[in-house]
Specification:
The complex is a heterodimer of chains A (170) and B (440). Chain A has 170 residues and is an alpha+beta fold. Chain A has one domain: 2-Layer Sandwich (60s Ribosomal Protein L30, Chain: A), CATH 3.30.1330.60. Chain A contains five helices and four strands, in the order H-H-E-H-E-H-E-H-E. Chain A has a four-stranded mixed beta sheet with strand order 1-4-2-3, sandwiched between helices. Chain A is globular, with a radius of gyration of 16 Å. In chain B, strand 16 and strand 17 form a beta hairpin. In chain B, helix 2 crosses helix 4. Chain B has 440 residues and is mainly β. Classes of the chains: A alpha+beta (170), B mainly beta (440). The interface between A and B is large, with 36 and 47 residues.
């Protein structure tokens, strides 16, 4: 967690130094604002190369069925978008974070989160994203997005989230 | 754990101090721990005699903690001081057995406490009231700071003498102290006495920490931390708080547990989405792979003789419990009931395996024989998880998380018989308890 936040902060500095500062104008977001997952929340949604565009327009997460790590058609559609974006914005690397809902034991859920992250990563790689640009990480059931204890929340917590990191060349 | 406390465990010449003990008639005083309903044994524990002024509060507190240990086991019932006919004001004076018999105290614990400088000396005796005989007598000394441990030692001696089992009170639990909202939970490694007293935090909340486990001598703790950004298994010394990543971990690592001799640690390493079980030699850091399947293999736990490992795997399609040799190789499935089974832990007695079971949306803590037979469920709730054994294999601790947006975990204990479910009071939310062996 910590090091992702640090990387994110570093990235902001790097971008600012490389005269990308004008991208941070919109939406009242300050450089360095972070999402709960530790990713970066910045840039204009109108700018298709911005991280905000990736997160909100492309979609930075895919969902899974109970105790499953196979990708649904909806998930592969989102991942297709992520792969296209990453193939065009090669300055970025990503970490795919796998998560599970609370309906499982801690250690099994860590392993399940790893499986989910890996499934998403493998798909991105199959769509042309260089393997060394995609890290994986599991959080098991440690970082739910939604906190109720019904399927409405659990279905959103069973996810693989693609967080943008600093790029190769930056 | 500081220096090992030097307990001068010299048996008092108890028998010779008692004037003409009458020999026991009938059965000896004994609690048989069975699956049947147990009527707690009534005992009296008059406040220990303070031999000097400095000993006053210690005498009072020592007696209370000792009695609370015994009551908490569910096997004993205290007869309150108000009902006592005799008062014990001289530790060496003859016991008026008739007075204790009259209030039906089957066992009587007496003690004396003196304090010299920072040294606390305790004597105690246990009597079978109806047989009018002393059963146990001990004297020991330690630093006044260790007074709680001395209470637990006395309770262990009483428990052990009356049940025939070793005790479990002089022990600690390492657990995860949790604070904050459910989606931003902060977790710290914490250490406490088995009864929830003396919590001490071993890490700050800057990284997620999970599932700590003691080394056999309780001086080191192995746990999973996100300190480097991804889950890695760390080894931490309880005294110095120095920590390091243990050995060669090329990828995400979790679910560590020591071998019974403390020389090795088993854990899961997850690479390319696949989790297998590995063993790492603590001294050299060298790693050997024990399972090699595309399934999730995790939560390994050694048998107490170190020859076998019980673990969970979904190689058969769902999460189930398997046993294999400690050197790896073929594994035999032992869980066959309905639902999913995880987090197996071998009992220190070697006779049973505790587990978490998920069935029809409910979680249970359960135990089974090591061949999977005689499954018995001990608890049931929205989320019960992560059993750990008391040093004597008679009690299990686990954590229970409540449902909903404000849901949070607490630590509980329960007898292997399924009786005596109790919440362990911790200063924060608590999860992932791991019980030490009896302290040295």
């Amino acid at each position: 967690m910590n090091s992702i936040l640090k990387v994110s902060t570093t990235l902001v500095c790097v971008l600012a130094l490389s005269a990308c500062g004008d991208k941070f104008g919109g939406f009242g977001k300050k450089p360095g604002d972070v999402t709960p997952s530790g990713g970066i929340q910045q840039g204009s949604l109108d700018d298709p190369t911005s991280v905000a565009y990736f997160q909100q327009t492309i979609g930075d997460r895919v969902l899974f069925a109970v105790d499953q790590s196979s990708l649904s058609p909806e998930a592969t559609a989102v991942l297709d978008g992520q792969a296209n974006w990453l193939n065009q914005n090669t300055q970025y690397n990503v970490t795919v974070e796998g998560h599970a809902d609370e309906q499982g034991t801690r250690e099994y859920n860590l392993a399940l989160g790893a499986r989910r992250a890996s499934a998403a990563k493998n798909y991105l790689v199959s769509r042309g994203v260089a393997e060394n640009r995609v890290n994986t990480l599991t959080f098991g059931k440690e970082r739910p997005l939604e906190i109720c204890s019904t399927e409405a929340c659990w279905s959103k917590n069973r996810r693989a989230e693609t967080a943008i990191n600093a790029g190769l060349g930056s | 754990m500081k220096k090992v406390l030097t307990f001068l465990c010299s048996a008092l010449a108890a028998v010779t101090l008692i004037s003409t003990p009458v020999m026991a008639q009938g059965k000896p005083l004994r609690i048989e721990i069975t699956d049947g309903v147990i009527e707690p044994l009534p005992f009296a524990a008059p406040v220990f005699v303070a031999e000097n002024a400095a000993a006053g509060t210690y005498a009072n507190d020592l007696t209370k903690v000792m009695a609370s240990d015994l009551i908490g086991s569910g096997l004993f019932r205290e007869i309150p001081n108000a009902a006592h006919i005799s008062k014990i004001t001289n530790f060496n004076a003859p016991v008026q057995f008739a007075d204790w018999k009259a209030i039906n105290a089957q066992a009587l614990v007496t003690g004396s406490v003196s304090v010299t400088g920072d040294k606390l000396t305790i004597k105690f005796r246990l009597f079978d009231v109806f047989a009018q005989t002393p059963l146990e007598g001990l004297q020991f000394s330690a630093s006044v700071n260790s007074w709680r441990r001395m209470s637990h030692k006395i309770a262990d001696a009483v428990y052990s003498r009356l049940t025939g089992e070793t005790g479990y009170f002089d022990s600690r639990v390492v657990y995860i102290a949790e604070d904050g909202p459910k989606n931003k939970r902060q977790k710290r490694l914490a250490l406490m006495d088995y009864d929830g007293a003396n919590t001490r935090y071993l890490t700050d909340a800057s990284s997620i920490v999970l599932a700590p486990r003691f080394s056999p001598n309780a001086r080191d703790i192995i746990y999973t931390s996100y300190e480097t950004g991804s889950p890695r298994v760390f080894l931490l010394n309880v005294d110095t708080l120095q920590r390091r990543i243990l050995g060669d971990q090329p990828s995400m690592a979790f679910a560590p547990r020591f071998s019974p001799d403390g020389s090795k640690v088993v854990m899961s390493l997850s690479e390319n989405g696949n989790s297998d079980i590995f063993v790492i030699d603590v001294a050299s850091g060298r790693r050997a792979q024990l399972t090699n399947s595309p399934a999730i293999d995790t939560a390994p736990s050694f048998s107490p003789d170190g020859s076998q490992i019980v673990f969970e795997s979904d190689r058969g399609g769902g999460q189930q419990i398997y046993v294999m040799s400690a050197t790896g190789g073929s594994a035999k499935r032992i869980s066959f009931g309905k639902g999913r089974y995880g987090t197996p832990v071998w009992s220190p007695r070697g006779d049973m395996i505790a587990f978490t079971k998920l069935n029809q949306g409910q979680f249970h803590i359960g135990v089974m024989r090591t061949d999977g037979s005689r499954e018995k469920l001990l608890s049931r709730s929205f989320l019960d998880e992560g059993p750990t054994w008391a040093p004597n294999g008679r009690v299990i601790m686990f954590f229970r998380e409540t449902a909903g947006a404000n849901g949070a975990p607490s630590i509980y204990s329960v007898d292997v018989t399924g009786r005596n479910l109790r919440k362990v009071n911790t200063p924060t939310f608590g999860s992932d308890p791991n019980w030490s062996g009896l302290l040295e």
